[in-house]
């Protein structure tokens, strides 16, 4: 890992923190808050690739854990991380890694469909699988009940996948950082 | 520099080492899941709550920790009440409250710098696995330095896109933000290398 990789990792961790400063959008009808912060892991994976993207989210989570209020709404510390929704927060690192792996795999002929598959799988399927399992254990409910409870958040995450796909393709054209030859 | 969540004080918990507090937190988090018995967990929660005045924290500090999870706890209690009985609901709620309140207590009584120092010590034995503490320290200080810089860039981009009537488009915000962050990263990497930082050099 060279100096540039370390800088990319650090700056995407900082970018994820900055995304947490944007005011959350509240979806009509359901009242579910949508924050820009969960775009961070999707972008880190899709733009930096598996290793650098995953590590940049790990770095971000380390800083949250040591007590910096970097999560959206100025939250931070161990309390939030091992609380009820901890699975979604830890899941971000794995989500970024999986997105990175898939984007690297599709890199040479990346289309909108392939990018959507990669980011949708890593950012929704993988993330919710981990997050819901954590909720199910913490709240002593079944996995299915946790999944139903998390469903209203899917709308916001679907919007974020669409934004991440467009951003990933735009950055790939103008500033590609992933090369398939590894 | 960003201020941490630490609240100053002189209690025994403030003076205890960061490593010990983190281990106690892990022990408590595991313990309350191993004992599925609501009276025991309630006693643990009461003990955790008793630590707050001991550390000089009033009810407003306690409420600030509970508030973000309050509605979730209410939902969980209602679900358990509906599926099982009130004892099951009480177990779930006291368990989560005990873990969250103790974890917050660790965060509130430990300086970010002390936490980072114990993190660096903990990383030492991981060196053979490819973890390089120097690289991690460099990355951590860079994140802290660049959060305000990237936040400024973000607000510049927002103003620029507002002038173009694009302030409602998240994409018009995110793409330039990423490109400018990546360009900045290239300059920063050059600057670090110009100062002879060698990431693969082992510390003497």
From TrEMBL, chain A:
GO terms for molecular function: biotin transmembrane transporter activity. It is a multi-pass membrane protein. Signal peptide: none annotated. It comes from the Bacteria. The chain crosses the membrane at residues 6-32, 53-72, 78-103, 115-137, 149-171. Its main location: membrane. Keywords: Cell membrane, Membrane, Transmembrane, Transmembrane helix, Transport. It is found in: Cell membrane. InterPro entries: BioY. One of its GO terms (cellular component) is plasma membrane. Coiled coil: none annotated. Belongs to the BioY family. This is Biotin transporter.
TrEMBL record, chain B:
CDD domains: EcfT (cd16914). The chain crosses the membrane at residues 16-35, 42-62, 68-84, 96-116. It is a multi-pass membrane protein. InterPro entries: ABC/ECF_trnsptr_transmembrane. It comes from the Bacteria. It is found in: Membrane. The keyword Transmembrane applies. Belongs to the CbiQ family. This is Cobalt ABC transporter permease.
């Amino acid at each position: 890992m060279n100096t540039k990789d370390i800088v990319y990792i650090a700056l995407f961790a900082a970018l994820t923190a900055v995304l947490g400063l944007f005011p959350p959008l509240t979806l009509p009808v359901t009242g579910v808050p949508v924050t820009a912060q969960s775009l961070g892991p999707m972008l880190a994976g899709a733009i930096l690739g598996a290793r650098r993207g995953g590590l940049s989210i790990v770095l971000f989570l380390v800083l949250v854990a040591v007590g910096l209020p970097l999560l959206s709404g100025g939250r931070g510390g161990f309390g939030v991380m091992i609380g009820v929704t901890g699975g979604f927060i830890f899941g971000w690192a794995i989500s970024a890694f999986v997105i990175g792996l898939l984007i690297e795999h599709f890199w040479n002929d990346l289309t909108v469909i392939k990018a959507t598959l990669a980011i949708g799988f890593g950012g929704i399927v993988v993330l919710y699988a981990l997050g819901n399992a954590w909720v199910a254990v913490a709240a002593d409910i079944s996995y299915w009940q946790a999944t139903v409870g998390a469903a209203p958040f899917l709308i916001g995450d679907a919007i974020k996948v669409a934004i991440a796909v467009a951003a990933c393709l735009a950055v790939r054209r103008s500033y590609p950082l992933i090369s398939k030859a590894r | 520099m960003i201020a941490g969540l630490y609240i100053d004080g002189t209690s025994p918990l403030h003076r205890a080492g960061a490593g010990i507090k983190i281990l106690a937190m892990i022990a408590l988090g595991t313990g309350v899941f191993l004992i599925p018995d609501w009276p025991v967990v309630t006693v643990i929660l009461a003990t955790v709550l008793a630590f707050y005045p001991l550390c000089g924290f009033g009810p407003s500090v306690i409420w600030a920790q509970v508030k973000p999870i309050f509605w979730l706890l209410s939902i969980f209690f209602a679900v358990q009440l509906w599926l099982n009985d009130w004892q099951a609901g009480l177990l779930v709620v006291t368990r989560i409250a005990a873990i969250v309140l103790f974890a917050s207590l660790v965060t509130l009584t430990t300086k970010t710098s002390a936490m980072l120092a114990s993190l660096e010590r903990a990383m030492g034995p991981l060196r053979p696995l490819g973890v390089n503490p120097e690289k991690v320290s460099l990355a951590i200080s860079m994140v802290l330095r660049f959060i305000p810089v990237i936040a400024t860039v973000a607000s510049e981009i927002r103003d620029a896109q507002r002038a173009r009537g694009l302030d409602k488009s998240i994409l018009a915000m995110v793409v330039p933000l990423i490109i400018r962050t990546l360009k900045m990263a290239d300059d920063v990497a050059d600057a670090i290398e110009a100062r002879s930082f060698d990431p693969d050099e082992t510390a003497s």
